[in-house]
């Protein structure tokens, strides 16, 4: 997947051009004094495209193989899993 880095100044001068590029599927990284601060990505992308972009920037590592579902490894005295309690606590 293509990724282009541009400065804030260039983005201000050519906003419509870069929005068109993002709409066409390209990712644009906006830098401030050479430091990346924002990444513009298309909103309508497939799951495979999203995973590929995360892998390309080094946020995830994935072999592409299907993940196996595992059963909860810990239960509380009430018979609920720890993950159920965490989900409930986050609400």
Keywords:
91 residues; alpha+beta; YefM-like fold; three-stranded mixed beta sheet
Trace the largest sheet across and list its strands: 1-2-3
Radius of gyration from CA coordinates:
20 Å
Pattern of helices and strands: EHHEEHH
The averaged pLDDT comes out at 84
Cα distance spanning the termini: 36 Å
Instruction: Label the overall shape.
Output: elongated
CATH topology term of the domain at 1-61 = YefM-like fold
Helix content: 25-40%
Oligomer: single chain
Structural class: alpha+beta
Describe this structure in words.
- By secondary structure, the chain is α+β, with helices and mostly antiparallel strands.
- It has a domain at 1-61: 3-Layer(aba) Sandwich (YefM-like fold), CATH 3.40.1620.10.
- It is built from four helices and three strands.
- It has helices at 8-13, 15-23, 47-56, 82-90; strands spanning 3-7, 27-32, 35-40.
- The longest helix is centred in the middle third of the chain and has 10 residues, at 47-56.
- The chain is elongated and about 60 Å long.
- The two termini are 36 Å apart.
- The model has no long low-confidence stretch (mean pLDDT 84).
């Amino acid at each position: 997947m293509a990724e282009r880095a541009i400065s804030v100044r260039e983005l201000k001068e050519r906003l419509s051009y870069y929005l068109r590029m993002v709409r066409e599927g390209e990712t644009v990284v906006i830098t401030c004094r050479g430091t990346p601060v924002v990444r513009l990505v298309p909103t309508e992308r497939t799951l495979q495209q999203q995973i590929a972009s995360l892998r390309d920037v080094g946020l995830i590592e994935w072999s592409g193989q299907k993940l196996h579902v595992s059963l909860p490894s810990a239960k509380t005295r009430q018979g609920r899993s720890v993950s159920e309690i965490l989900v409930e606590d986050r609400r």
